[in-house]
Design a protein that fits this description.
The structure holds two protein chains of two kinds. Chain A is mainly alpha-helical. Chain A has one domain. Chain A contains eleven helices and four strands. In chain A, the strands form two sheets. Chain A has a two-stranded antiparallel ribbon with strand order 1-4. Chain A has a two-stranded antiparallel sheet with strand order 2-3. Chain B has a six-stranded mixed sheet, sandwiched between helices. A four-stranded antiparallel sheet of chain B has the order 2-1-4-5, covered by helices on one side. Chain A: It comes from Limobrevibacterium gyesilva.
């Protein structure tokens, strides 16, 4: 491989990682946008999502990378695994909101945020106890179909990840821009009290933000498994922190910002791993986070305090 | 005018607190169907708390709030909007990053979509041709006067029976103040009851049928607008007979 091919290859990898971070970052940004809460349980909802996808694929008799599916069975199995992981994660998100955070809604200060840290540890330890601490092989039934782009290789896996991510992000954008509930979400993010006085039921909006954000984390968790061919109980922390950085980089609370921030972080991770060395990846990513917070605290696409005049 | 003497909104011995602060002290208001009733008073006298109590943003500790014969003080805000109470908020509070059209849609949030929505939209556009021109612009990019038109239009989209206005003249140029008050009168003539908090007592009393005067959370004076306009206390404190009235 020439240097140019290496960069192209890393850009392809980076786009897949970026898609994963974008989907995960959206959950942080949706919840933060609505209720100014950093939801640390999101880290491990993502991890649970990857295990739900893994177990679902195993229920179809798949294990490891030996069983290859094609055609309709492949599409069907993939779709079922994505839907299972998204639905279950969405339900977990809704349960966290309904039973643990809603009772704290009126409490000022960091109580809700600290609760989400606690929930994160509960999820982590539940998986640790039931599945174990070692890395699990993630079934991958995709045929080893590849396309050459110059000297770089584009795998079917990448195409699948990109299509799924584009569909989900396109769907989210449509939902937020054009549906009644989506508009209520935007209105609530911009001025919660005014939205309430338009007749918006804030509880419903908050619950929707948790459901959608957590479902996207489920999809992201499945993408993690497909990308690395493994899942592990501690994957939520590194991926979650990078996705959170992506949300801050794009401007927390800003939906397109989270998408762009995620792709940027993915590309930075892949390319810096190539150029500087993977040992430096976290230094570079979190160095960027610090620089953004110092020089442009509202993020690349964020706005200064909302204009309420 | 559809004033038939029956009551639309009634506060009976309402007490509202913010923590230790006693914001409304045993307050009684009655607002008849078809009336324009104004609430006058200085800063921090409980005017905005009154609005928030009607909308259900704050709940009274004791007392009852009756809307059209039904107690509403325990209902959530969204239910009150469905019953026909719509706000025009202090400082307009448009959704700054939503278009004017989307702001109007939010006003109609509790209303079914379809023919009625288009009808209401046309009504707002004919009352405010400027709003129609600006319909694709973001709320935050409009001038104060234009924002006030959208804010009133947004309230009308809810097909309200009662509009609660919080300082409709605040921050507007005198020309817009005139226009806004003309429109308020027009909306009232078309059958909507108006309860209006206003610092600009001159303007408020010129269009209101009745008014209440609040001082540190208690009603100290009430009567018809004509009575209050000649009341020496009002003339001194609110109509700028002795002081320079900056708002006029």
């Amino acid at each position: 491989m020439t240097t140019a091919d290496l960069f192209l290859q890393q850009a392809i990898n980076g786009l897949s990682l970026g898609a994963m971070y974008s989907l995960l970052a959206l959950g942080f940004t949706l919840v933060y946008g609505i209720m100014e809460l950093i939801n640390f349980s999101h880290f491990n909802v993502f991890m649970v999502g990857s295990f739900v996808a893994m177990v679902t694929l195993q229920m179809f008799g798949l294990s490891g990378q030996d069983t290859i599916l094609t055609g309709l069975p492949l599409v069907g199995v993939m779709l079922v695994a994505f839907l299972a992981s998204m639905t279950l994660c969405g339900a977990i998100g809704v349960a966290i909101e309904r039973f643990l955070l809603r009772p704290l809604r009126a409490v000022k200060g960091p109580a809700a945020m600290i609760t989400t840290i606690g929930v994160s540890y509960v999820l982590f330890n539940a998986v640790l106890l039931s599945i174990g601490a070692d890395s699990k092989n993630f079934p991958n039934p995709l045929p080893p179909l590849t396309f050459a782009i110059g000297g770089a290789v584009l795998r079917l896996r990448e195409i699948l990840i990109w299509i799924i991510s584009l569909v989900l992000m396109g769907g989210l954008t449509y939902f937020v821009q054009f549906t009644r509930l989506g508009k209520a979400m935007r209105a609530t993010a911009q001025d919660p009290e005014a939205a309430r006085m338009m007749g918006v039921e804030v509880d419903r909006v908050v619950m929707t933000a948790f459901f959608v954000g957590s479902a996207l984390a489920g999809a992201s968790g499945m993408i993690f498994g497909l990308y690395y061919n493994l899942s592990k109980v501690d994957i939520g922390f590194a991926a979650g922190l990078r996705a959170f950085t992506a949300a801050v980089l794009g401007g927390i609370g800003n939906v397109p910002g989270a998408m762009v921030g995620g792709v940027l972080i993915g590309l930075i991770e892949a390319l810096s791993g190539q150029v500087v060395g993977t040992a430096w990846t976290d230094v570079i990513i979190f160095g960027i986070l610090v620089l953004v917070l110092v020089f442009k605290p509202v993020g690349l696409m964020g706005r200064v305090a909302p204009n309420k005049s | 005018m559809s004033r038939d003497g029956s009551l639309l909104l009634e506060f009976t011995n309402v007490n509202t607190y913010y923590g230790d602060l006693h914001a409304l002290k045993n307050v009684n208001y009655t607002i008849g169907k078809g009336e324009i009733v104004s609430l006058l008073g200085g800063n921090a006298c409980g005017k905005s708390t009154t609005m928030k109590t009607i909308m259900g943003i704050v709940r009274p500790a004791t007392g009852t709030v009756i809307f059209d014969g039904k107690p509403i003080e325990k209902l959530p805000t969204s239910e009150r909007v469905k019953l026909g109470i719509a706000p025009v908020l202090e400082a307009r509070r448009l959704f700054p990053r939503m278009t004017v059209y989307e702001n109007l849609e939010m006003g109609a949030y509790t209303q079914p979509r379809g023919a009625r929505f288009s009808e209401d939209l046309e009504r707002v556009y004919s009352l405010f041709p400027r709003v129609k021109e600006r319909r694709n612009q973001l709320g935050g990019t409009l001038s104060g006067g234009e924002q006030q038109m959208v804010a009133i239009g947004r309230a009308l989209m809810a097909r309200p029976r009662l509009i609660c206005m919080d300082e409709p003249s605040m921050g507007l140029s005198p020309l817009y103040v005139e226009q806004v008050f003309d429109i308020i009168q027009e909306i009232n003539k078309q059958g909507t009851t108006i309860f209006m908090v206003e610092q600009n007592a001159n303007m408020a009393l010129s269009i209101a049928h009745r008014a209440y005067v609040l001082q540190t959370g208690a009603v100290v004076l009430s009567g018809t607008a004509a009575e209050l306009r000649v009341n020496p206390l009002i003339r001194e404190a609110y109509l700028g007979e002795l002081k320079v009235d900056v708002a006029a």
